[in-house]
Specification:
Blueprint (H helix, E strand, L loop, with lengths): L1 H29 L19 H6 L1 H12 L2 E6 L2 E6 L1 H9 L6 E2 L1 H12 L9 H14 L2 H21 L12 H18 L1 H19 L5 H4 L6 H26 L9 H6 L11 H32 L1 H15 L8 H5 L2 H13 L6 E5 L3 E2 L6 E2 L4 E4 L2 H4 L22 H4 L3 E3 L4 E3 L19 H18 L16 H10 L1
The structure holds protoporphyrin IX containing FE.
Protoporphyrin IX containing FE binds next to α13 and α19.
Length: 495
């Protein structure tokens, strides 16, 4: 009797799914809305193309582009997402008017519980633009200049104390090492001395608990009581207190500003109306900057190391470049010196081209948006998706795009020189990116604010590694492993 019952239930479920699939297919084949971009064919309603997009977004974009053109809509966990590829798409989405396209409605559900209230996507855009302006002034050349020796020393100390670096040869697992090096160098520079002192104890654990808060499921079901969300919330409060205590200690000791870390910078920042940045906002911005930079930089440095291990001749060239440009390979690195390492900058560029941190940049549509040259209007129920990184993966713009070849940049104009059209969104002039085929740091209003810091950090990490090690791939394969997008979907889509 029991098994019969189970049988009928299962049969009913199968029939229901079959009916849903049939209705979904018939609807797609019979009712095409010619006033909206084509919808990518999918068997399952609600799930739509979620799995195929999540598995390999770039392959998905290119396959859809071949079938439907630059503009198409796909179903992502029940949402209608309209992708607009190419320069026109970047211009349309990244430089869309504030009243038409909105980032915070997409990202805030994920970022606010991690960063905290009243910063970034939890405030009106005008306020966030002021916060970006504070960050920009904190990352001026003078601050970056002071960071270079601190970063170099941190990496040297790390090499000295970690046992797997002992001896003349050995095996290392690059990604976790680069993650640690990124955390130590950021902590010592941007985050400040006190944070670095706490890194070996409380801070690292809090960081990991916060980082676990970036779960794909939180996009759909942010209220779901996952154990890691509870840990995230506890860590968020403790981390806020940790920064607030440091600020209080600096104030009460009457300590004079002795470094150019971001904490001092925020402590001296005031909004346009004269209100000084409150301590909780400072704490939350510090968390935001930590989380925004950590993954992107550690992933980029890991990929660069893995490519260098696969192509040791380029590693040797990078070393020779240091000898040639900086004289002795053992002189301390300087801001000015690092800037002169052209091949090193090409290596960074090439890594960010091939392994962009963010494959999908999303905005919520707020008003019906007509697409020029078509009859299509994108309705406010849709999400817009720009994928500037797709151009970097296309042979059309970068011949033999699958090959990691830093030398290709010799023949390509400096991306900074390509950035002709500029706008001020409230934090200084930034490129609209309208014509560029290379936008690893985005464009427009939401363009990355940590670009200069990231470039210096990457250059220092790579330079130190090149000076001290020769790497080879253990399995001697030329191509490093493929990107596993399923594990980085959310981190990549957010910051
Ligand atoms: C290789 C390293 C990095 C890459 C490739 C990268 C890339 C990007 C991209 C593409 C965006 C635009 C997102 C969008 O339009 O929705 C972005 C935004 C942002 N980045 Fe970065 N980033 C990097 C490092 C950093 C670092 C080190 C920091 C902090 C020090 C940082 C802070 C931010 C912030 C705060 C935003 C949000 C800006 C906004 O929404 O207005 N990033 N990043």
């Amino acid at each position: 009797m029991f098994f019969e019952y189970i049988f009928w239930i299962s049969l009913a479920e199968v029939v229901l799914v079959a009916v849903a699939v049939i209705v979904n297919v018939v609807r797609q084949k019979s009712f095409k809305n010619l006033n909206e971009p084509p919808v990518v064919f999918h068997w399952l309603p609600t799930f739509g193309s979620t799995v195929v997009y999540g598995k390999d977004p770039f392959k998905f974009f290119f396959d859809c582009q071949a079938k439907y053109g630059d503009v198409f809509t796909f179903i992502l966990l029940g949402r209608r997402v309209t992708v607009y590829l190419g320069s026109k798409g970047n211009q349309f989405i990244l430089n869309g008017k504030l009243k038409d396209v909105n980032a915070e409605e997409i990202y805030s559900v994920l970022t606010t519980p991690v960063f905290g209230k009243d910063v970034v996507y939890d405030v009106p855009n005008a306020k966030f633009m002021e916060q970006k302006k504070f960050v920009k002034s904190g990352l001026a050349a003078s601050a970056l200049r002071s960071y270079v020796p601190l970063m170099e020393n941190e990496i040297l100390d790390f090499i000295e104390r970690e046992p797997y670096f002992a001896g003349s040869d050995g095996k290392i697992n690059i990604p976790p090492i680069m993650a640690q090096i990124t955390l130590f160098t950021t902590a010592r520079t941007l985050q400040g001395r006190e944070v670095r002192e706490k890194l070996d104890t409380t801070y690292a654990k809090l960081y990991h608990d916060l980082d676990d808060g970036f779960q794909p499921i939180n996009f759909m079901l942010p209220w779901f009581p996952l154990p890691q969300n509870r840990r995230r919330d506890i860590a968020q409060k403790k981390m806020t207190k940790l920064y607030a205590d440091i600020i209080q200690a600096r104030r009460s000791s009457g300590e004079k500003k002795d470094s150019q870390d971001m904490l001092w910078n925020f402590m001296e920042s005031s909004y346009k109306d004269g209100t000084p940045m409150p301590d909780t906002e400072i704490a939350h911005m510090m968390i935001a900057l930590l989380m925004a930079g950590q993954h992107s930089v550690s992933v980029a440095s890991s990929w660069t190391m893995l490519h260098l291990a696969a192509q040791p001749d380029i590693m040797e060239e990078l070393y020779q470049e240091q000898l040639h440009v900086l004289g002795d390979g053992s002189n301390p690195l300087t801001y000015e010196g690092v800037q002169k390492l052209t091949l090193c900058s090409y290596a960074i560029r090439e890594t960010l081209r091939m392994h962009p941190s963010i494959h999908s940049i999303m905005r919520k549509v707020k008003n019906p948006l007509p697409i020029q040259g078509t009859n299509w209007v994108i309705p406010p129920s849709h999400v817009l998706l720009a994928a500037p990184a797709a151009m970097g993966k296309s042979d059309q713009y970068f011949p033999n795009a699958e090959k990691w070849d830093p030398h290709r940049w010799k023949d390509i104009a400096d991306p900074k020189d390509q950035e002709k059209e500029k706008m001020d969104y409230g934090y200084g002039l930034v490129s609209t990116g309208a014509d560029s085929t290379y936008l690893p740091f985005g464009a427009g209003r939401h363009r990355c604010i940590g670009e200069n810091f990231a470039n210096i950090q990457l250059a220092v990490v790579i330079s130190v590694m090149v000076r001290h090690f020769k790497l080879t791939n253990i399995d001697a394969t030329e191509g490093v492993v493929n990107t596993d997008y399923s594990v980085c979907l959310v981190v990549n889509s957010v910051l």
